[in-house]
Amino acid sequence: MKKILFLVFLILAVAEVKANEIEVIKFSDLKEIIEDKNNDLLVVNFWATWCAPCVKELHQFDELQEKYKGQNVRVVLVSFDFADQLNKRVIPFVEKRKVKSEVVLLDETDYNSFLDKIDPSWSGAIPATLMIDRRNGLRKEFYEKEFKEGQLDQIFSKFIN
Questions:
Q1: Does 14 map to a domain?
Q2: Residue 135 confidence (pLDDT) above 90
Q3: Is residue 11 in a domain?
Q4: Domain count, the chain
Q5: pLDDT for 11 beyond 60
Q6: pTM to 2 decimals?
């Protein structure tokens, strides 16, 4: 019985550590993630806990990460929640929904200063997703929309082929 309790405690502790690993970053840090040449395929989703369409599609990014595990695909979920909401809102949200993908919180107040650096067509609406393929040169695709069920996987499959 003690071993079972210890195992349950250990699992909960690992889950807690993962959730608490959510880093608060600036745009310069996000730019480094986007420009990191160690990732052949990068998917960056911009979302927030208060955005219903964002929350609705979020599980698809975890599924994508799992499907392409071991294939040099990195999925990063960039939260637009306020930095002071990290412990009160973002971490509990990530824990409750058991989000497996990498989550960072972007601590910027002037979105207009970087939106066009992500994609010139971006109005600033979320959800929005950037896909980058570095395998044969640099190829980017940007989607300022909610992915309906199965749509993200379908688009990503075409994107990487």
A1: no
A2: no
A3: no
A4: 1
A5: no
A6: 0.86
DSSP 61-106: HHHHHHHTTTSSEEEEEEE-S-GGGIIIIIHHHHHHHT--SEEEEE
Q: Give the chain as a DSSP string.
A: -HHHHHHHHHHHHHHHHHHHTPEEE-HHHHHHHHH-TT-SEEEEEEE-TT-HHHHHHHHHHHHHHHHTTTSSEEEEEEE-S-GGGIIIIIHHHHHHHT--SEEEEE--S-GGGTHHHH-TT--S-SSEEEEEE-TTS-EEEEE-SPPPTTHHHHHHHHHH-
Average pLDDT score, the chain: 88
Instruction: For residue 43, give both structure tokens.
Output: 């998917």
Contact between 106 and 78 under an 8 Å Cβ cutoff? The reply is yes
Write out pLDDT tens, residues 12-34. Answer: 444 443 445 899 999 999 999 99
| Average pLDDT of the segment spanning 37-55 | 95
Residue 112 has pLDDT above 90, yes or no: no
Q: Find the domain containing 45 and state its range.
A: 22-160
Cα separation, 64 vs 51, whole angstroms: 20
- C-alpha 106 chain-centroid distance: 11
What's 96's domain CATH number?
3.40.30.10
